[in-house]
Amino acid sequence: MLNRRNVCIIAHVDHGKTTLVDFLLRQAGTFADHQALKDRVMDSMDLERERGITIMAKNTSIRVGDTKINIVDTPGHADFGGEVERILGMVDGAILLVDAAEGPLPQTRFVLQKALRENHKIILVINKVDRSECQGTNRIQEVENLVFDLFIELGATEEQAHFPIVYACGRDGWCTLKPDEVPAIIAGEKKADLKPLFDLILEYIPKPKVDVEGEFKMMISNLSYSDYLGRLAVGRIRSGIIKKGTRAFRLGVNDKGEPIKQAFTVAELFTYEGLKQVPINELDAGEIGIIAGSEDFDIGDTIVTSESSVALERISVEKPTLAMIFSVNTSPFSGREGEAIQSRKLRERLLREVRQNVALRLEETETPDQFRVLGRGELQLGILIEQMRRENFEFMVGKPAVLTKEDSKGHILEPVENVVVDVPEPAVGDVTQLFQKRKGILTKYEPFSIDSEGKASRVRLEFEIPTRGLLGTRSKFLAMTRGEGLISSEWKSDEPFKGEILHRNSGALVADREGETVEYALLNLEDRGIFFFGPGIDVYEGMVVGENNKDTDLNVNVCREKKLTNVRAASAEILVTLSGIRKMSLEDCIEWIDDDEWIEITPKSVRIRKKVLAQNMRSVKRSER
Predict the structure, then answer these.
(1) Quick check: 214 pLDDT over 50?
(2) Coil, strand or helix at 149
(3) What is the CATH number of domain 3-204?
């Protein structure tokens, strides 16, 4: 049996996990000296590289001496917590990354709580110690104390609370175990690399506790795909050995949740060497490996070689908090810019996503061409929409709805979240007002960064707010903080319904006919509100073209052209242009729409439309919608 360690890297979003993995791979000799490398090699999806966040958990490995270290890079955003939860069963320890200036944030708490429940050994890495906020202050010591307090609060055992601490700068690829060496390393007076972290992993993270002689069992924790072999099952071998060509069984569940057993022949076996999947003849207990042979692998299934074996307990994750309706595209422009899929194909695509992502669920609705997708947050659903859009699909989505439940007395309960925001001090008043209008309660006020004059330049605020209240706040929050604010949230509990929250106090400007927008028409209507696009755009009756200044909808003719006359126009008229257009991204549209509207998604466009297109069939009053 090979000497190995299985470890994952967990942290809040943007605390430097993927960058640290880059340097672990490089300094372990995974890549040749002449090999050209791009930053964040583990972020393989286009969306991950564009947004600068990790969305899918991924595996890699490095070799230190005669020891193989399997590393799993996990997402840091709360919306992708399901990825973290299913990965923790594959490893025996975790590297907890915390930003030296920001300290532990909500997702830090979430992932740490899960790791402690699995009884994993934790190595704390305080990253970005070179940040200016940490120089000449005791901020690093404060962060150490905050993390220790968090361990105690989450019920860590005495052994878990005695965690080793590493001080690192992942961007420059160095770390040290001694905090007093940090200034000298930053100044270049002393050289350092990641060897102390390698040594600590080998010393502190235990070897896999597995039964090599027992019957073969493997839990599928992730899925991959090969053009030649089809679906691939990724997971940790809990016990036994499996060889290529062996007859095996998949113990899973069907669509109704009933247990099933399916026989298959192991076509290929792979293990991770660096970023590559390397073929191998057998996998033994403790290894993180890949099995090919069945097109029906699902996350949570157990693979065994004995027909009488019992399945392992399926992976369970936190329950969803949001629901969104996905529908077949029924607009007049359906099929113009992409593939106008029918309900069968839409259902198959959503089912495929749900099987790969245990944090998502799919429900049928009373309407055969509409499906209800349940997830963790707006970002998670937005990523799914963007992925489907890039696959050339056309479809529609509705406004996200928060999932409520009833207690034993019939009272409505709704999810409430802990929200932590770091904002510039001048923006504190506006941000506090924004959340308090949405039923948020301020629970903590903490000066975060002290300048040379002893004044707080940044402040950390904590709120308890219904999940409903968070919908549509992100763009407003960024505008109030001029893009300098940081916001993160974590589900806290289900609490009694907090009352109605006004989502949007303005109506919509709706096109009253099909045609192409004309600048002359837009100029004459711009005192009625703000438009979402300029001239030369194809529109149809019922399509939302802008936001009304009043709280009612307004049907407008944005295709009206100027009548030609024999009177010469004044030259000054040529200089008149639209004063401003609000370009709406997918996330902006999700935040903006109301219950009576759809977002039409195509590979080239994102449009907002009314559910009822004909203007004589719908009311313009909000109370009658």
Answers:
(1) yes
(2) helix
(3) 3.40.50.300
Q: CB of 605 within 8 A of CB of 331?
A: no
Positive or negative: CA dihedral 389, 391, 392, 398: negative
Neighbours of 250 (CB within 10 A): 22
Rounded to whole angstroms, the Cα distance separating 223 from 204 reads 29
Residue 416, helix vs strand vs coil: strand
DSSP labels, 238-285: EESEEETT-EEEEEEE-TTS-EEEEEEE--EEEEEEBTEEEE-SEEET
Over 528-582, what HEC string results? HEEECCCCCCEECCCEEEEEECCCCCEEECCCCCCCCCCCCCCHHHHHCCCCCEC
Please give the pLDDT value at position 546.
92
State the amino acid at position 262 in one-letter form: Q
Give me the residue label for tokens 């903490």: 446
Q: Which CATH superfamily is domain 217-304 in?
A: Translation factors (2.40.30.10)
Which of 285, 240, 243, 291 is closest to 270 using CA atoms? 291
pLDDT in tens, 302-360: 999 988 888 888 876 667 888 999 999 999 998 888 888 888 999 999 988 887 776 78
Q: What are the structure tokens assigned to 165, written together?
A: 């601490």
**Does pTM surpass 0.85?**
no
DSSP per-residue letters across 340-371: E--HHHHHHHHHHHHHH-TT-EEEE-SSTTEE
Q: How far is CA 610 from CA 146, 551, 614, 617, in A?
A: 49, 16, 9, 11
Interatomic CA distance for residues 570 and 553, integer angstroms = 34
Residue 108 has pLDDT above 60, yes or no: yes
How many angstroms separate the Cα of 271 from the Cα of each of 18, 234, 237, 395, 546? 21, 9, 11, 38, 53
Q: Fold for 405-496, please state it.
A: Alpha-Beta Plaits (3.30.70)
Domain coordinates in residue numbering, the chain: 3-204, 217-304, 322-402, 405-496, 508-624
Alpha helices in 28-64 (DSSP H): 46-51
pLDDT at 52: 46
Q: What is the pLDDT of residues 537-565, one digit of tens each?
A: 999 999 999 999 988 999 999 998 887 77
